[in-house]
Design brief:
single chain, 169 residues, 7 helices
């Protein structure tokens, strides 16, 4: 399959997803590079101003959790972005159910605390942001990009197509 090319803009839910995308695109070179910004596309509307600041031919990549919320705002954001003249395409990358579950599947872990030896799920998020060499941690846990973002979401997000294969290198 021919990989997509051009300008990519990732919109992610929070700091931990931003860190994950940065490591995957820069340190590990497993996904297509692009700019990463925090915007929860399930809860926040994409503004005209934000769209106007993007270069012509930009592909938007929406990375979002599917464990809470309603896809109404997400669907509105997809429609709005696709109507924008400078947007080439919109790729959705649903996290089933959230980043922790995705990482557990990608590394075959029993629980997320196992990854960074965190005391709790809450501590994991802090530990992930503090960890200086996530690439080596991923490698030591046999991280497999093919198992990340590989599932299709359940209702109510089941109508959203998973485009993760289009960003994986």
């Amino acid at each position: 399959m021919k990989k997509a090319s051009g300008i990519f803009q990732y919109y992610v839910e929070g700091d931990d997803e931003k860190r994950l995308i940065e490591v995957l695109k820069t340190d590990m070179r497993l996904i297509i590079p692009g700019k990463v910004q925090i915007l929860n596309v399930v809860q926040e509307r994409l503004t005209d101003l934000k769209l106007r600041t993007l270069q012509d031919g930009t592909t938007l990549v929406f990375v979002f959790d599917t464990d809470v919320g309603d896809p109404a705002i997400l669907n509105e954001n997809i429609r709005k972005a696709k109507k924008s003249s400078n947007i080439k395409d919109v790729y959705c990358v649903p996290q089933v159910k959230n980043i922790e579950d995705e990482l557990i599947r990608a590394m075959g872990l029993k629980n997320i605390e196992e990854f960074l030896k965190s005391k709790s799920k809450k501590d994991f998020k802090r530990d992930m942001l503090k960890e200086r060499n996530l690439k080596s941690k991923f490698e030591s846990h046999h991280f497999d990009i093919q198992n990340l973002w590989a599932m299709n979401p359940a209702t109510p997000f089941d109508k959203i197509t998973n485009h993760s294969k289009k960003i994986k290198i």
